[in-house]
Amino acid sequence: MSTPFTPGGDVDDDAAERIADRLAAHGLSVFVLGTTGETSSIPTSQRERVVNSALRAAAKRVPVYAGIGDNSLSDSISAGNRYLKLGAAAVVAHMPSYYPIQPEEMRSYFERLHEAVHGPLMLYNIPQTTRMSLPLDVVEQLSSLPRVVGFKDSENTPGRLEEVARRFGGRPRFSILMGTASQSLTAMRAGYDGVIPSSGNLVPELWERFWNHASAGEWAQAEELQRKLDAIGQVLQGSRGLGGYLAALKAALAAQGICDATVLPPLRPLSKQDREKVVAELKAIHVLGSCGAASPS
């Protein structure tokens, strides 16, 4: 879930509830305080507000997952236990990213986190931000821990998707989730349990339809939707990096009237010209209507 902010940079609680409510209304689980949520830029004092907003809006219709990735193990533990007490279904943690660490250090870090967080814990691999890959041998070791319930993988290395499915697919108490939206169809065909796409904030109705078709093995319909969703992703990405993509997503959500286009430093909002270009391109592929409303097509 994208985290909405006021123009002054505070968490916008009302807009956060709108986004979470829309996700839940389409049957989509809500994952707050992840990469799309700009979590590393949100003051620690305001992160719990995002969790509370999502829980209020979801109203137990769907699970709410909360990110606790931080360079401080103590802060991650403290956040994890608070969010679980509030009602989060699970907490999600990536590796600390300041120091380059080796596989044994990665394993030890997650073991200590698991020992101290008193509820379900999901592993999260995102080398685009941590600059390190969580080896699958380490994931294998960690998957045997009683409260480690799954693995979100946002690494797009050739062959990794298939290896994750081969090693971890079909386990009754360990879910594998694809974090790269363009790989969603391939992942579901390979046996993944779900996908975590940032464009779900913008077009939850399309991701609901994708999920329904993929879950039913209706691959032709799912493939058609994957092409549509890829086109949306290409508009948001363009030649931008990750920060520019998130700013473009916020601009699109602002065009829908969902939230303000504000992103937190070090990210910058799109220029007026670039924002207008994104909106025009989304309208051209029937994602935004003439008044900014989402189109179901």
CATH architecture group name of the domain at 13-216: Alpha-Beta Barrel
CATH class of the domain at 13-216: Alpha Beta
Report the CATH superfamily of the domain at 13-216: Aldolase class I
Strand share of the residues?
A: 5-15%
- Determine Rg (CA atoms, Å): 18 Å
Report the count of strand segments.
7
* Biggest beta sheet summary: 7 strands, parallel
- First and last CA, distance: 22 Å
Tally of helical segments? 12
Low-confidence parts, pLDDT < 50 over ≥5 residues? Answer: 290-297
The shape is: globular
Question: Portion of residues in helices?
Answer: 40-55%
Query: Could you please say which CATH topology of the domain at 13-216 applies here?
Result: TIM Barrel
Output mean pLDDT.
95
Task: Provide the structure class.
Answer: alpha/beta
**Strands ordered across the widest β-sheet:** 1-2-3-4-5-6-7
SSE arrangement, N to C:
HEHEHEHEHHEHEHEHHHH
